[in-house]
Every structure is written in structure tokens, then in C-alpha cells.
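Input for the complex:
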Amino acid sequence: MSFDRRQFLKITGLSALAALGLKGGFELLAPGKVDAEPPLTKGKRWAMVVDMRNITPEIMDKCKQACNEVHNIPNWGDPRVEVKWIWAEVYEHAFPDRLHDYDAESLRGKEFLVLCNHCSNPPCCRVCPTGSTWQRADGIVMMDWHRCIGCRFCMAACPYGARSFNWGDPRKAPKELNPNFPTNPEFPTREVGVVEKCTFCSERLAKGELPACVEAANKMKKDVLIFGDLADPDSNVRKALRKHYTIRRKPELGTKPNIYYII
Amino acid sequence: MLDRALKGGKGYWSWIVFLLFVIGVGFVTFLYQDRMGPIVTGLGRDVSWGLYIGQYAYFVGIAAGAVMVIMPLYLHNYKAFARISVLADFLGVAAIIMVGLFVFVDLGKVTRILNIAIFGQPKSILFWNMIILNGYMILCLLIGWNVLSAERKGLPHPKWVTFLIYLSIPWAFSIHTSTAFVFAGLPGRHFWLSAIMAPRFLSSAFCSGPAFLFITCMIMKKVSSFDPGDEQMKTLGGIIAYAFIINTFFFMVELFTAFYSSIPQAMDPFIYLFTGLHGHGGFVPWMWTYVFFTICALILLIIPSTRRNLETLTVACGAVLISTWIDKGLSMVPGGFIPDPFGKVFEYSPTAIEIIITIGIYAAGFFVITVLFKTAISIKKEIA
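Predicted:
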């Protein structure tokens, strides 16, 4: 009888839950409120479409805030060692190779929401010497914070600057900037010396919930962040991509990024 | 044989004690870095590798350079190099130990270092690099040790050592090729994304390695009765001259491709390094120092009379070491990260902690060199 890692984790996890008491175990394992459409636990190729026509800096702020809180992302108050999973970057920086001297005024200085592109051909996963970052069958580029040795090869490989390193212990980040840290006791905090990044909220998807940023955006305005399954021709993302002209960051590098921007 | 390293004069022991002291200071500083986290380095999310990884690349080059002694001796039967071949092998051992230490201090989670072996991913260049570098160190140690003990007994070294020697020649090329591939295969890092990266690494290795050996030989000639031989040193000078000229040529080729094509991403790192970009120019003085020493070295190496004079050749070798060190050990790594993927310039300069740890590792390397060279020289003296 052989186990792969997933099975092993499942079984050890279940045993641990059993030890904690059956009631608690059932509560944790119970499926969340799953909408009939889209089935968030069963996607084959997750992607996101950002509707830049309707998103506002306020919505982006909320997205970022939601992500930071859900994932216990510390605020170091120093751009050098910042940890960020999703943030806003002006057009000139998000698309440095698309610029020309006569760009539409509406584009220059406009903030774009950027995050891990969950590339279909991710260079970060290719270079990782320990398999600490890998791609799931549904396309999500994952991180194992317990295996990462902190070599930062993935950070050199990512052409989107989407990966963050824990230069310091997140629990020792300045208290005045992080009064309630850790903000989400359900989610682990990281140790010093490992790389981390957006995981499309794999922990929420597993419960049938939308990624935190999408949920936060939806509360303010529907459909500015569209999250769905590219493999399904009738999915929300495929409909949006069929209907609108979209751009991606640095597609010429062959990484096949999966964050699309309607401009 | 190693007991020879325990017998030495006052000068020898003061040097050993000095090195141990510097190693100790470096080690304590490393403990501090490990306790506080890498936040105490000058690295950050934009320039995420720096001085340590630069030294890693540089000393892989020094190690690979040893092959420039092994190859003439065993492939071209240039017997004169038999006198220094063991030293070249031992230099390889010391350099790889430094390389390992530089990777070690750069890791975020040093306690998990064995994960590279446990969970090794064949698609990762770093995984192969780890195997190749360790293999090379073992090869150099086995070869150096066995050739030396055979010399001591006045016998030819065993056949299996000859096999290892032949194996070590392509292996030396592979250590630096795989090190270049760590950098050269990353989309979006235009400064590194160049097919000539591996050839450039090799050419720089084949001048800096022999130059390093040359200078250590000259020092030993001063402090011990060991004579590396004038002919040997002059031949090394010739090898260094060829490799350094090729290395400079390869660099010019990079400049041509970047600037004639005029692709901004290809030009920007060079512009940043040599003239500064967006008002940031921390590397500018270093790069012009590099240009100065490159020109000095070229002049001294090309003119036959200065190349054949051991004193001017020593100066040339010093210039070669400075030039290749700035090129590969200092600017090569940050050049790949500046400008960052957003086209922004975030500068990097190492902190005192990084510098002290780096010097500590240098001292560890010199310690290994001292002990191994002392052993080799004592034995060579006994049989002479």
C-alpha cells in the first residue's frame, strides 16, 4: 500500500481531528455553503478577470485588506521587506513593456490590481529545488511553507514580482502597525525565512468559498473581479473573455499567466 | 599526511590563529543573522540575492579554474605542471567549501538544507548544481590526496586516480556551466537571459582561477622554501592572458547585443550599472573600477615583456582578480534584479553583517587552503 503526500496528510489530518473530538472534526469537514454555480471545489483551471473599467482604488484597497487579514500578512512598514499577495501597481509598472509616449490619459497613473498570475507554465515551480512550490491539477501555484528552504530561486524566476520572502519573523513585525496580529487564527502564520505568495485562497475554495479578494470586491461592486474555471466554456471567466478585449502581464515570456485585465 | 599542517613556524601559527579568529567573528555574526532573520542583510523583495550569491558564483569559478592546470598536464602531457597540479586540486576543494558556506548563509531556513537532497527536483538547476558541486569537491580531494601520497612514496598514482582525473576535466566545465544556468534560464531577468552566460562564466573562471593560484604560489614562494617554478608561473600567465582576453571579448559581445538591438530590457541593467538609472547609481564607481582594472590587466597580459616578468605578471593577476570579482562577485547578481519586474530601481548594498560573514567565509577558505597547501608543500620538500 502506498501513499502519496496528499493521502498521507489527509489521514494524519483526520486522525488528528478524531483525537480532537468527533464533533469538532465534523464541523471542520462539513462542506461550506456551496452555490450551485460555479462549483468552487471542482474547478479545472482557475483564472481571474479584472474589469479595470469598473474597479476603483477603494475596491482594490478592500481586496488587499481582506487578503491581508485572512492570510495574516504582516505590515513591516518598509517597502524593502514588504510581504504582499495582492496589491495595486500603476499601469506604467504593471505593464512596463506596453508603454508608449501617447498612452491614453486614463491609463497613465491608473492603478491595476496585481497578484500571482497562477501561470500555466510557472517558472517558479520549475526552479524550486525542493518542490516546495508546485502547481495543483486545477492550476493553482501552491507553496509549502514547511518544506521551503528559503533559497529564493523562485523569486528570481518570477517575472511578476509576485513572491514575498519572510525577511523577518512575521510575529515580530512592528506591533504598532500590526495591533491584531495574527488577524485570522484559522490560518497559519509563517516562519521567518520562507517564501510565500497568493494561493487563490485554496483554503477557502476547499470550503466552496470565493477567494477573499473576490468576496470583498463583490460586496462593493459585482463582477469587477471575476473568478472562475477557464476549462468550462460556459464559465463566467470564459464569457467575460469572449465578450471583451483583455490583456495579460508579460505574455511574451511564455509563462501563460491567468490573470486577465479588461481595459 | 595531514600532520604536516601541525608543524610550522611562528609566522605559520600566527596566520592560523588569525584565520581562526576571523572565522570565529564571522560565525558569531552568522548566529546573529540567523537569530534576527535575513532582515539584517541589505537584501529585499526586489534584490533578493546579493553579495553571498555573488561570492557563490565567483568561487565556483575559482574552483573550475583548477582545470586549467589539470588539462595541460594530463591531456597535453605538459609535465612542468606536475609540480602545482596538487595545489590546483586543493584550491578546488577550498573554493567549493566556500561556495557551500555562501549558499548556506544565504538560505532562509538553514536547518532545512537537507530538503534539497530529500525532496530533490530534477527539473531544478539548483538541485543539479548541488550534486555537481559536491561531486567536484570529492573528485578534487580524492585526486589531490592520492596524487600527493603517490608522490610521497615515489610511485605513479593508481590507475583509478587517472580515471578520476580525466573525469574531473569535463566535470570542472560542468560545475560552472550549471552555475551559469542557475541564472541564465529565468524569463524576465534580461541581464542573465543570455546564451553566452555559461561561456562567460567559464572564461572568467579560467582566468580568475589560475590568477588566484598564481598569487597563492607567489605568496608561498615568499613565505616558504617552495618554488612553484618560473616556467610554470609563466605558462599560467599565458593561460590567464588568453582566458582574460576571451572573457573581455564575451563581455563586449553582451554589450553589442544589448545596445545594437536597443531592446530596453536588455540595455537597462547595463545602463544602471555603468551610468545609473532613474537617479540611482550605486554601482557606478565599482563598474568604472572594473573597467580600469580590466584595461590594466589587458595591457600587462598582452605585452609579452610584462607577461613574462613575474613581478608585473603578479600585478596583472591582481588586476584580473579585481576585475573578475567586480564583474561576477559583485555586479552580476544585482544586475539581474535591477531594474525590477516593474521597471523600478531599488538599489542594494550589503550591510556590515553580510560583509563580516563574507570575510569570515573567506577566512574559512584560506584556512583550508593553508592547511592543504602546507601539507602538500611539506611533502614535496621531503621528497625533494
